[in-house]
Each structure stands twice: as structure tokens, then as C-alpha cells.
Amino acid sequence: MLNNHAPNARNPIHPYDEGLVQSLSIEEGEVANAVAALGEQVSSPARLLKALAVIDLTTLSGDDTPERVKALCAKARQPLKPEVQAKLGAEGVTTAAVCVYHAFIGTALEALKGALPLAVVSAGFPHGLSPLKARILEVEESVAAGATEIDIVIDRSKALTGDWKGVYDEVRAFRQACGEAHMKAIIATGDLGSLGNVAKASVVCMMAGADFIKTSTGKEAVNATPNVALVMAQMIALWLKKTGYKVGFKPAGGISKAKDALVYQAIMQDVLGEEWLEPHLFRIGASSLLGDIVTQLENA
Ligand SMILES: O=C[C@H](O)COP(=O)(O)O
């Protein structure tokens, strides 16, 4: 039964439900068939512009510098030259947000000047294995420094040993530490071993109050794939049906071609509908996707 929440009501913390977690199972062959059935995606300036507008433009490298972060923010604020904007009727288009490490919050906030939200990776990113107290403190510090979106990671060892309540407790603590900041929960699908675990991790994070579920850190051996995206989208649909709350989806890691972004768009549209193509419910975390989209829009 759907609750009558406002469209953008934040997903709150829900009680832990082991029965629901254990009831989730995924038929891997059916997922592959459903992805194949989406077929070839046809590119158009409208679809490319929509994809551009959901990018969390990211730099998460060991050699990041304030100069690199400033340049990234400038690109996020004005990804298209004025003449290309005018040609496409896309004046003022920006990416959805910028995503950096905690150390660059000050630099990014100054460069963004409030034009875009700032996302920060946290909670022991990328592996989530530092002491829980330190991970919670990291979230609190990033919020206090001005980040309005916090991308946390789950402790995969808990998921892999079936300690779903342990995953829930930690994610709930991060959600509490986020306060008003929106929380994206990275489940690191490439580390989870099965689509069944992807489904369980997705639902556990939504129970614990995640506003978005995100595939990957970009540091796993396998990052976002259409198959995990389909399962996560199905879990978001299930959550909406069960609770009435709309949770967003963020594929991330290794998405560098416009045609790949269009596949994730198609999955959103197919499983969740048009609303999940917009930045309040869909982001693509990417460090090098923007260039390909811009090139294609310039040549459109
Ligand atoms: O959260 C975003 C990812 O870390 C970006 O990964 P990428 O550098 O492979 O695009």
C-alpha cells in the first residue's frame, strides 16, 4: 500500500526486517535476458543532455590537487560552450554535482559558489574497513565542512558473511551522522559475489535510510554493469511499492562512453519510469564520461 508522501520526501530510517532480506532471491538468467531485451540504444541530443545533467562529475585520485578540483568545478558549472548551449537550446546546463574527497571540500565549495551540490565520499571510502567510530566521524566532519551529499561505503565483509543486520546498523549510523545531507550508499557490487547479494545489500541500505543506492566506488575490479543496475532498479521499485518512498540510483565506476550512459538511462526508464531520469533520483558517478558526451553534443 503506497503512502502519500511528497515526491521528494527523503527515505527515512526503517526498522530492520530480516524476513524481507532473506526473501530476496534473483534469477541471474532472467536478469541477463531483461537487459538484452532493452536492445540497442538510439542516441539523440535530448537523451545526451539528460545524461549530462545527471553526472556527478568526479575526481577521486591519489594525485588530486586543488587546481584539478577547481578545473573540475568549472567544467561542472559550464560543461558546454555558449554556442553549443545556444544551438541545443540548453542554456545554463550543468552537471548534477561534483564529487571529491573530504580534503577538497573547501576548494570545491569556493569554486562552485553554490551553483551545484557538493558530494563527498566518506565512511572509509573505498573499502569501509577503518574503525566504525572513525567512519562516523568522517561523515560528521564532511557534513560540518559543507558537503550536502555524502557517498558512504558498506563493509563488504559483513555482507559476504551474511551479517545483514551488521550492514544495516552501520549504514543507519552513517544516515544519522548525515543529518540533513543526502546519503548515497555504495554497495560495491563487484565485491558482493552474486546478484542475490546485490539485491539484499540494496534493500538493507534502503531500510537504513539511504536516499540513493550506488553501485561502486570505481576502485573495485568490476564496477557498474547493466545487470547489477537492473537488479538495483528492481529493488528500488520494490521499496517504492512497500513503503511509498522514492530512492535514487547511481551507477558509478568505469562509465566513460555516452552509449553506456544511455543503457543505464534505458534501465531506469524501463523499470522505474521517466521520473528516474532526473537528477533528484538518478546520478551517474563518472570521472571521464563528460568528455564523450560533450564531443557528441558539439557534433550533433
Ligand atoms: O563515484 C564515482 C567513481 O569513483 C567514478 O569512477 P570512474 O573514475 O571510473 O569514472
TrEMBL record:
Keywords, comma-separated and alphabetical: Lyase, Schiff base
One Pfam family linked to the record: DeoC
Cellular-component GO terms for this entry: cytoplasm
Pathway(s) it belongs to: Carbohydrate degradation; 2-deoxy-D-ribose 1-phosphate degradation; D-glyceraldehyde 3-phosphate and acetaldehyde from 2-deoxy-alpha-D-ribose 1-phosphate: step 2/2
InterPro entries reported for this sequence: Aldolase_TIM (IPR013785), DeoC (IPR011343), DeoC/FbaB/LacD_aldolase (IPR002915)
Signal peptide bounds: none
Gene3D superfamilies found in the cross-reference section: Aldolase class I (3.20.20.70)
SUPFAM superfamilies: Aldolase
MF (Gene Ontology): deoxyribose-phosphate aldolase activity
E.C. numbers: 4.1.2.4
SMART domains (alphabetical): DeoC
Catalytic reaction(s) noted: 2-deoxy-D-ribose 5-phosphate = D-glyceraldehyde 3-phosphate + acetaldehyde
GO BP term (any one): deoxyribonucleotide catabolic process
PANTHER family referenced in this protein's UniProt entry, alphabetically: DEOXYRIBOSE-PHOSPHATE ALDOLASE (PTHR10889)
Entry similarity comment: Belongs to the DeoC/FbaB aldolase family. DeoC type 2 subfamily.
Protein name: Deoxyribose-phosphate aldolase
